[in-house]
Amino acid sequence: MDKEVHISQTYPRLTVYSEENYRGRSRIYRGNLGIRNTDNILDGIESLRFFSTSSNATLVLFSRTRFRGSFRVLRGNHSIRDLDDFISGNDVESIISTNQRLTLAQIRSIRSSGNLPSGYRLI
After folding, report:
1. d(CA 117, CA 96)
2. What percent of the chain has pLDDT over 70?
3. How many CA atoms lie less than 13 Å away from 29 in the CB half-sphere?
4. Would you call the peptide bond into 12 cis, given omega within 30 degrees of 0 as the criterion?
5. How many other C-beta atoms are found inside a 10 Å radius of the C-beta of residue 71?
6. Whole-angstrom Cα distance, residue 80 to residue 95?
7. Model's pTM, two decimal places?
8. CA 96 to chain centre
């Protein structure tokens, strides 16, 4: 049986920027979501801020589009000035932002299937 996912309209809040050091154009996303291809947002995401009031908040950064490749899991609030070479020398190409505490098994399942859990918005 799948875990029930509660979507918050306010958190987590993911702010992405078109340039390093939180500069350039920005866009704010709220709630549980996945960005399939960071190059389709602002012609590429170069930095980000992730904020949530939940200690379970999870940010997953992938080295390939559609939640594939190597990944890095961050828990809690984070600000990343430069996404270049962030995952073992690879750029961030897709992102999952959620208030839910995703386990490594859940993340690997998403990586192998390319599908997000129910209740997530796909961008």
Report:
1. 11
2. 93
3. 26
4. yes
5. 22
6. 13
7. 0.90
8. 3
